[in-house]
Amino acid sequence: MGNGAEKPIQQVSDTAFWVATYRAIETARKDALFQDPLAELLTDGKGREISAKMGNTSTMSWSIAIRTYVIDDYIRSAVQQGIDTVLNLGAGLDTRPYRMDLPPNLRWIEADFPHVFDFKEERLRNTEPRCQLERVCIDLSDAGSRQQLFDGVSTQGKKVLVITEGVTPYLSVEDVAALAKDLCAQPSFELWITDYFSSYFMELYRKGYLLKRLGDKAPFKFFPENWEEFFKSCGWSLKQMRYLADEGARLNRPSPTPWYFKLLFRFMPKAKRTSLSQMSGYALLGKTV
C-alpha cells in the first residue's frame, strides 16, 4: 500500500464517508431496502474515493445495506414502544432524522467530533429534520464530557434509546466496558443498539483485507472473550440479535459470495455453517434485571 499517507482511511471519522457511499449505492438500486437521498450529497467524492481504494465493494455494499435496514427496524419498533429520545453516539453522517418517518416530538441527539458536524451541517443546511434534532460536538473518549452529555440527556428523556453504529469495534475492551457502565448508570437509558462481531469474524479480520486497509489508522480493537457475557457484566442483556446473513436471506438479498463458496457451504458441517452465518449482526440490548 506504500506509506501511511496513501491509506484510504486516515482516521476513524473517515469511515463515515465510506459508509455514506454504500447507502448512496443502495438508494440507487431498483430493489433498495431503504431510501437515503441525502447520502450522495454527504459522500462529497471523498466517500467514493475511499470505497474505490478499499475494494470489495459488493460485500461492503451488501453489509451496510442490511445493517442499515436492521437498525431502522429496531428504531421503528423502539419508537412504537414509547421511546421518546434517541442518543446516537458517533453519529457520523447518519441521516435517519431526515429520512425516517419519525414522530415530530421525538428528541434525537447526535454526538460526534466538531469537524464531522461542521461538514454535515453545511451540506444539510437546506434540509429540515422530521424530529427534534440536536447535535453535540464531543470527543466521546473524554469521560468527563461524556458523563456530562449522558446526565443532560437522562434528565430530559424518560425513555432513551442509545445507538452506537460502527463505534464499538474501534474501541478497546476497557473503553467499551467504561462506556457500557456509564450508559447503564443512567436510569432513563433503556435500550441500546450496537454492533456484534463473533470471535470467528475477528479471526478472519486479523487475516483479511479489512485489517490491511484499515491498518493502524482505524483498527478494530474490541475483542471480548465472550461478547454476550461481557455486556451482561456491564449491566446489559441481549434482547434481540439479528445476524446480517440471516437477514439477507430473509430479505432475498443473500451475501454476494462466489458460487463455488455457496456450493462448499452446503457440504460444511452444521457447526461451521452456523459460525459463518452468525459472524456479524446488530444487537438490541436492555438493562440486566
Q: Profile the largest sheet.
A: 7 strands, mixed
The gyration radius over C-alpha positions equals 19 Å
Q: Separation of termini? A: 49 Å
The CATH homologous superfamily corresponds to Vaccinia Virus protein VP39
CATH domain fold name: Rossmann fold
Number of helices: 14
Strand order of the largest sheet: 3-2-1-4-5-7-6
Structure summarized in a few sentences:
The chain has helices at 15-27, 39-43, 46-54, 57-80, 96-99, 114-123, 143-156, 173-184, 199-207, 209-214, 227-233, 244-250, 259-266, 270-277, and strands spanning 85-89, 107-112, 132-137, 160-164, 189-197, 236-243, 280-287. It is globular, with a radius of gyration of 19 Å. Helix content is 47%, strand content 16%.
Walk me through what this model shows.
- There is one protein chain.
- This protein is α/β, with parallel strands linked by helices and 289 residues long.
- The chain has a single domain (4-287), classed as Vaccinia Virus protein VP39 (Rossmann fold, 3-Layer(aba) Sandwich), CATH 3.40.50.150.
- 47% of the residues lie in helices and 16% in strands.
- The protein is built from 14 helices and seven strands.
- The protein has helices at residues 15-27, 39-43, 46-54, 57-80, 96-99, 114-123, 143-156, 173-184, 199-207, 209-214, 227-233, 244-250, 259-266, 270-277; strands at 85-89, 107-112, 132-137, 160-164, 189-197, 236-243, 280-287.
- The chain has a seven-stranded mixed beta sheet, with helices on both faces.
- α1 crosses α3 (46-54) and α1 crosses α4.
- It is globular.
- Mean pLDDT is 87; it is low at 1-5.
